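quick one before i forget lol
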Amino acid sequence: MAADFSIVTCPECGRRNRVGHAAHGRPRCGQCTGDLPWVVDADDETFASAVDTTLLTLVDLWVPWCGPCRLVAPVLERLAIEYSARLKVVKVNVDDCPQVASKFQATSIPMLVFLDQKRVVDTVVGAQPERTLRQHIDRLLSNIDKPTTH
């Protein structure tokens, strides 16, 4: 079972903070109150609670032996910092989590699944440049931020 928290260093003041795996709202630094990047590991048991958030969620379906997966990991860390108040990254090792892998039909990795309110809104398969992933995130956030009209 994945840990129910992570230790995250605040990009503003450098303080180490304990960030819950599942929570509502967004994580903030206990010292400077700045927004913290939210990157968590999830497994079959904790996945549902990890993606239960109002933030755009990027699910990283990966395995440790995959070279492209290892290339994408630091990119996702940087994007989590850049979009700290608006994006949550949930990392799932599909070798250890067959239920989550099956849910998203993860036959190729890395596979990045974007969720809004637990609904799939975009999927990216394969290692993509940081610029491309940033464009996906910007587009999705702009759609989320638009008020809906009835």
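fyi The radius of gyration is 15 Å.
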